[in-house]
Design brief:
The complex is a heterodimer of chains A (575) and B (245). With 575 residues, chain A is mainly α. Chain A contains 21 helices and one strand. Chain B has 245 residues and is mainly alpha-helical. Chain B has a three-stranded antiparallel sheet with strand order 2-1-3. The chains are: A mainly alpha (575), B mainly alpha (245).
Amino acid sequence: MTVIDTEISHASDADHLDQHAHYAEPTPIGGLAGVVGSGDHKVIGRMWIGASLLFGILILVIGALVGFERIDALDMNLFAGVEAFGQSWTLYRIGLVFMVLVPLILGLATVITPLQVGSRGIAFPRAANAAFWTWLISAGIFAVSHAIDGGFVRGGAQDPVELSLVSLGFMAAAIVLATVCVVTTIITQRTEGMGLDRIPMFSWSMLVAGSIWILTLPVLIGNVVIIWIDLQGEVARFFANGFTDGAWNQVSWIVDQPQIFAFALPLLGIAADIVPTGFRERPRANGAVQAAIGLFGLLSFGAYAQSYFNANALSSPVYVLGALGLALPVLILLGSWADMGRRSGEAPSMGIQGLIAIDAILILLLGGAVAFLRVSGALLGFLREIDVEPSWLEDLEALQGTSINGAVFNLVCAAGLLGALAGLHFWAPKIFGRKLIGPVGLLAALSLMGGAVVTAIPDVISGFLDQSDFFPLPEHLEGVALGVEDGVETLNLVSFVGRLGLLAGIALTALNVLGSSLLGGRFDEDDEDEDLDNPWGGHTLEWATSSPPIRDNFADPITVGSERPLLDLAEGEVR
Amino acid sequence: MSTTEADVTETIVADSTTTTTTVETTTSTTSAASSADGVTVNGTEPERIIEASVPRRRTLPIGSALLTASTLMYFGGLFGIYLSERSQHLARNAGEDGVPWFADNVQVELGPPTLLAWTLLMSIPVMQWAVYSYKRNDRRHGLVALLVNAVFAAAVINANVFQWNQLGFVNDDLASAAPPLLYAITGSFLVAMIVALIAFAILALRTLSGSTTSQHTDSAAAVAVYWYGLVVLYFIIWILIFITK
């Protein structure tokens, strides 16, 4: 028996780490039970990634069908009626965020953030596992409820509509729970020496984005609960009038600007981790980049922008200037990279993931520009107050509610998906134990990027031609002409082709992940001597362990002295 | 007896009389729980032995704080909608012939909610007493404090249901949007109270089944954070719905 006296106040975390390096571990459970009930963050993260990519194919097929129908919406060639069209339309909007983008990013975060902060696992592993299964079941029910006349549009049957509401609420709650696990890990499980100013950028972006998700998704759940309670009466009058048009208007803020930017925010962190690795440089303005990501998160908080309850919300100065301000953090990030490039003096070696990350940033910037264009009509109101009335702004004033809304949505979601794709390529050795297939990844990225642009630009132009966002309005139900100008059909055809590009991008990514998981060894034959533990020369802590990581991630406790500990080692610095 | 690294179980013994912690390392081929049995260091009883766990910087209270913030935002959204709908309704019905926010036959009494608000206020020191007792490894007082707070929570739930019965309006009342909003807010608060009760029960059961009490200090603090959030929420409900009407 050994007895050691230790001062409480002076007991370091390293001491504790050292003690627990020897703590007895339970025997791992194998087989299906080991996967279904796993508390291993790497297994849970892979489940998030796989399920979200499969849902991605489903949702983008629906998006393509909706896009095809928009070419000649009045005839309704594909769908049984405008109700079915509207149900698919809302499924695409909600599904792309809650069944694809956010779960994909959460999957990445669940695997990577504990590694980045030097933790042995994720905080509350059972809750993380429960969150995944709750989300998976809810997402399945959400999709099915739309197929049986649910959703958020007029004409749905009451029980399926309630099913849609409840499943959306549970999906949001599951995402909140999973996010709490990730954020708690980042706050409480950091290794010795890693202050908040030293956490890697992806973890920092998840801390910011996760905080926004934790604070805004419950507001959506509140919206859903009110509509659901209203539906319980004999006559649902106030919040689910005829079950619906009102229902969609109450929940649509979650997939509209500025909130939609909060779901794509982690791509800033992913890019900020990948690009400096390519430059092999230490960013000088680490704090500025952190502040920029924080500012982006602040500006993307969208729970207040509920036009259903506050008609002036979308013309308020906060809303309009917020849309303009979103570009600033991205420009700071680009400035940081330009500075690194100038100091490096040589071409960066970023690999495919670097190119995809930069693509993602550019698409995000384009989304921000379109978002500002969309709300800039509100500037007219401010200018009128000072007796300035530029006539060219009048066209912009009518843009709210047109198909430009869909352009912002598709661009920002595509940017987020591209960011996640870059992350998948960068961290594939840690997630899957092998690299993804590069050329397939590049093709997927080109499809996503091209698809986003080809979908969005025609939607922006048709917005100026008064095409509505194509949510079925009462006049659609009554067969009244849409009142849009000629040429919209052609623009919608081009937009449909873009949606096919988005679908191809996600399908290729799913195939790449599946192919690399099953056949990856064959593709690595030429690179047998390659160091898979740190193939890109990564700077942050996740690259200090093996690929795939060992059971508890790190063999020994690690103390870090800067935000890029592996670069410290490479430079031989003792910080 | 062969000893491997995996067999090593460590226990930390808190010494309340000094400012030091004794870290004791024992070797055993049996379970961690049984290794603690019968261990006495410097006269310390087994109850006072804390088994080491994965190092965490107050993970439970931080996680609880995040979930509590989430709960507060959920109610914040409901309050925002309530205020918005109420002000719009009152603006539309400003004249003498206007429809009131709460129909005339609805009994929105201030008495029971006020009683509830003060009951919850009283529960704050009781909850803190529980945390204090857990910190001092005082199982008896910790459990008594939890029990008292559970009684408070049950009383709140009971009074809430009683009030629903007294209100006298139904969700089909078409005069204003007050019924679905009031049911959404008070019903959600009821669910939050039930969650708190379940948390009390889990904490109490884990305390009773464990060999020590102070190892659950973080759990008690986590439950307390959530409870304080609920108390704040009820005061807002009290002012927003029952005082303002």
